Amino acid sequence: MVDRDYFGTDSEAQELIGNAILQYDMSFDHIDSSTLAGVEYRDASSDDSSFYGDAAPIDIANPDYSGAPSSLNVYMGNDQDYETKSVFLTQNLSFYDRFVVTAGVRNDSLDLSSTDITGVTESDDFSETSVRGALTYIVNDEISTYISQVESVAPPSIGVKPERGEQYTRRPA
Question: Which domains does the chain have, with CATH numbers?
């Protein structure tokens, strides 16, 4: 006989996202330019609970599955609400069909709220600017090499501290 327990989660989420992007392309002799400017709005909420319950022991030599538990205990729960408003600008410059320089900047305003299982609510507002940049060399139509650096900020899964990211990438040909 082996002891057993039930574990599970129940989650629900809603999200509304909208964005508008303008693109302007232009060529100057051996330089091609592409400029992107945009805004983004996101309103999201999620509700999740984690629970457990006791189950009858099972005979592993002759298992008899007993079905769902009669009662469950919630041990973790979280309600997340957030609204983000973002503006961004990205510039791509291509030189002689071989080199591509990309530079971008983005500002995110985050309004965050989190309520835990005990009913305690935390909230905070943030405004952060992140940047990105890359240099690409096009060897031929099938092979390119590049180096890039990207920063990011996003609403958290739990709590009100934003998740931040930073990535450096180098890809040789």
Answer: 13-45+79-171 (3.90.1150)
